Amino acid sequence: MKSNRWDTSYEWKAVTLLALGFGLVGLDRWLIAPLFPSIMKDLHLTAQDVGNCIGILGLSWGVFAALMGGISDKIGRRKVLIPAIIGFSLLSGFSGVAGGLASLLAVRALMGVAEGSFCPTSFAATADASHPKRRGFNLGLQQSGFALFGLALAPIIATQLLGVMSWRWVFALVSIPGLIIGLAMYFVIREPRSMSEPAAQPVERGNWRDVLKSRNIPVAMIALFCAMTGVFVLGAMLPLYLTDYLSLDTQRMGIVVSAIGFGGFVGQFGLPGLSDFVGRRIASIAGFAGTAVMLYVFRGVGAQPLLLFIVLFAASFFTLGLVALLSGPVATEAAPAGMVSTAIGIVVGAGEIFGGGIAPALAGFVATKFGIQNIMWLPIFAVLLGVGVSLLLEETAPAKVRRKAQAPALSGNAQPE
After folding, report:
1. From CA 403, how far away is CA 417, in angstroms rounded?
2. What is the pLDDT of residue 274?
3. Looking at the domain assignment, is residue 119 inside a domain?
4. Nearest-CA neighbor of 36 among 145, 147, 171?
5. pLDDT score of 163
6. Residues 299-323: what's their mean pLDDT?
7. What is the predicted pLDDT for the residue at 84?
8. 391 contact partners, CB below 8 Å, separation of at least 6
9. Alpha-carbon gap, residue 308 to 215, rounded angstroms
10. Who wins on pLDDT, 295 or 233?
C-alpha cells in the first residue's frame, strides 16, 4: 500500500538544488554586464553592441524556453535539466575566449539555448516537488537564486576579480560550480509521479494551442514582457549609466548594481509568497505600481551610492518579484493538466523574446542616439503598461479561490430560514 504522506525531505532537497542551479543561470548570464566596460575596451565595442550581446541571449533563451518546456513534459525533467546546466556552464567559460563581437554573440546565443531549456523545466520540477500550499513560495524561492547570484553577487564578484585577473579568466572561473550542481542533480532530481507511474487510464495530452486558451496565459505573457523590460534594461545598461553619466568608479558601480540582485532576491520569494495570501492579481498590480514609482525616483537621484542602492533595491524587489510571480504560480495554475512546463515555457519565452531580447537592444539604441541618461524612460513606460495588463488577470491563488468559493455558502448559512 502506497503512503499518501508528502515527501517533504525530497521537496526541500529538490528546491534547494534547483534554486542553486537557477542561481548559476543568473550568474553566468549577468556576469558579463559589469565586465562590459573592460570588454568594450579590449574588443572595441559600442553601447549598441552591449545591448545586442544581452539581447541575443534573451532571444535564443525565449525560443528554446517555449520549445523545451513542451519537450520536458513529454520526455521528463532530468533529460533536459542535466545536459542544460552542464551546457550553459561550459559556454559561460567559452565567453572568455571570444576574440571579437561575432564570436561573443555566437557564444551568448548558444548560452541562451541551454539556459532557455533549463528555465521552464526547472520551474516545472519545482512545482512537481512542492506541496500546493507552498507552491508560490517555493517557485519564488527557486527563482530568487537568479537574482541573488546573477544580479546581486555577479557585479561584486566581477568587479573585485577584475582587480586580480583579466575578464577572460573571470568567465573561466565561474563556469566550475555549474558542473558540480549538475552532478548533484543527477543523483537527487526525480521525475514527477505522473511520469514515473503508469496511469490507470491514458490521459490525452493537449498542445500549445490548448495552453493559450487559458485566459491568464496570454495576459501573463504580456505582463512578463513588461516586467522583464524593467529587469533587463536595468541589468544591461545600468553599469554604463552609473560610470558614464554619474561618474562612479568601477567598485562603487558594482556595489550599486548589486542592489538589483539583493532587492530581487527578497522580492522573488517575497511577492509570490505574499500572493499565496492576498492573491496573484493584487500582488501583480502592486508590483508594477511599486516598480514605476521607484524607477521614477531613481532617475532623479544623483551620484549618491547609498541612496541609489536603497531606491534600486526597492525597485528590484517589485520588478523581479513580478517575474517570479508571473512565470511561476500564475503560469503553473493556468496550465492544463500535464502541461505545466509547456505553459511556463510559453510565458517565459514571450517575456524573454521581447523583454529580454528586444528591450536591451532598444535600450542600446536609445543610449546611443539620445544619451545614456534617458534609458530609464523605457522601463518606466513598460511597467506602467503592466499595471493595466494585470487588471485582466483572473485570480487563481488556491487560498484566495477557496475563500471566494466558501463566501456564498457562509453567507447563505447566515440567512434566517
Report:
1. 24
2. 85
3. yes
4. 171
5. 78
6. 90
7. 92
8. 281, 285
9. 38
10. 295
- For residue 353, the tally of other CB atoms under 10 A from its CB is 24
The stretch 375-400 carries a mean pLDDT of 87
**Residue 119: all three cell numbers together:** 528555465
Distance from C-alpha of 182 to C-alpha of 367, rounded to nearest angstrom: 38
What size, in residues, is the chain? 417
Angstrom distance (rounded) from CA 372 to CA 378: 12
CATH number of the CATH domain containing 219: 1.20.1250.20
Is position 3 within any domain?
Answer: no
Instruction: Centre a 10 Å sphere on the Cβ of residue 104 and count the other Cβ atoms it contains.
Output: 22
Is a pLDDT exceeding 50 seen at residue 311?
Answer: yes
CA angle 151–170–250, rounded 5-degree value: 60
pLDDT at residue 204 in the model = 53
Residue 210 forms part of a structural domain: no
Greatest mean pLDDT range, 273-282, 296-305, 366-375, 385-394: 385-394
Confidence at residue 200, expressed as pLDDT on a 0 to 100 scale: 45
User: Residue 293: how many CA atoms within 13 Å on its side-chain side?
Assistant: 9
The answer as to whether 291 is a domain residue is yes
Distance (Å, whole) CA 222 – CA 255: 32
The alpha carbon of 107 is separated from its chain's Cα centroid by a whole number of angstroms, namely 20
Q: Which of 43-47, 167-171, 203-207, 305-309 has the lowest mean pLDDT?
A: 203-207
Sign, CA torsion 130/150/78/116: positive
State the residue range of the domain holding 301.
9-189+215-401
**Per-residue cell: 400:** 484566495
Number of domains into which the chain is organized: 1
> Residue 340 corresponds to which cell in the numbers above?
505545466
DSSP state of 197: S
Kindly state the average pLDDT of the residues 113-135: 84
How far, in whole angstroms, is CA 297 from its chain's centroid? 24
Rounded to whole angstroms, the Cα distance separating 96 from 172 reads 7
| Euclidean distance between the first and the last CA atom of the chain, given in angstroms as a whole number | 47
As a whole number of angstroms, the distance between CA 1 and CA 156 comes to 53
